[in-house]
User: What shape does this take?
Amino acid sequence: MRQVPISITLALLASLAAACAEAAPQATHPRKTPLVRWVYDPAIPRPEQPTGGTDRGGNVLAASDEVPCTDSDFRTVPIGGHPGAVLMSRHKYCQQYVSSPTMISVDLMRRTDDSAWEFYRPGVPAAKISTHDVGTLVIETRVHAYGGSNRLGKTHKIDVSAQSFVFDPGFPAHLQPGIFVTLQPNGGTTMPTNSGVRGFEVNTSEIGLITLSAASHSGSTGAFDVNFKWSYEGQDPQGNITQFAVYAPSYAYSVNGTPRRDTTGVFNIDADSSASWLFPQGLRCDKGVATGDGTPSEGCIFEEAAPVFRISATGSVAEEALHVFQAQTTTDAYRTERSPGVFLPVPGTRVVADEPGDPQYMGLIRGTLEDSILNRDAACVLPNSLAAIRPYSGSSSCPTPQSPNCSCDEFPFAITKNGAAYNPSGTSVRYINLDHNRTGGSLLSGFFRTERVIPNEKFWVQVTDIH
Assistant: This one.
């Protein structure tokens, strides 16, 4: 396995050391999650920096999901904080964490008993070799994870900065100028959870080197891809799915490129601390499951982020959107419950759904083709359907039952387990423009594919551009 280092050069100046506070004791915490190591794969090209959203069969991912995080996007998760705070969408997270003050070390040697200490060099005769404390270092890590849902992988970018450094009083003064530290992420993934998955692999494109100078104590790896492969041996096509998490909990490091003596072991520094935790974000990848019919389609999402179908009250789906808004915000003599699916974020997060107990905020559950037929019949088709037994309701373009180019529309959508066959008292029916109805259905199908919404998974609906 080839490991590619992230080189960080720290100008450990006397003025910086003098400005730093006393180092606190280093916090430790166990890491029991089994890892599958990242494997460098030269066949994976280094990704170009994207310039905007990507068209995928009529579904355009937001441009912000295709590009690295901005400074304002990053979140730190303190003790008691919600791990989902770092999520920007189902396709992107921006996580920041700071290490505990950590004493870094290096192997030094003396060529003779009375010569000066110098950095250890293999093969050079030495009278004495010993490990010395260099100083106490605090680093901040920023991880960008982003990219489209139509591939088995995500693009990553790691920024590292030196927050502080304090030289150890015993470290030789003549070796202090020009000190630098090379960091290499100890990266991996948690083991896949699906028993039908075989031959799971994690492969990366090359990770670039970064240098911190006296003028700038931060740098970046640049973008690199982390891609996944597996084979599925299960019998159910809906099982061709796996869940895991990619993360880099620590760094192997060297000082001034100095190897360990006798090549035994490596020096390591934890990337996070007890006050600023690294929370691995769960990735879920599927092959053909999100389409619902097994048609070729594959991709990955961060599954804790809520899938929210946003539909505009202007343009080609205006009448559909206004119907959804009315269903979610009002009741009447026949529909005694507001329709569910209103998105409410968990406090402190941006895209994690809160379901506080009010049925209005419960997610809609994606159903199957059979559910769609049952709901459609109960809402619009059968002689005793909701449309047949309730007073006529129509949009502005469908004021009467005789209005042309109109279609019976229901919310919750027919392709849910919340529709007329399951919850008639919370289902609204209205005649709307046929083209708006068809376009809304097409957008919903594209949403399921782009957001990788699988059968029996919850999703929410948000109407925008309401005036």
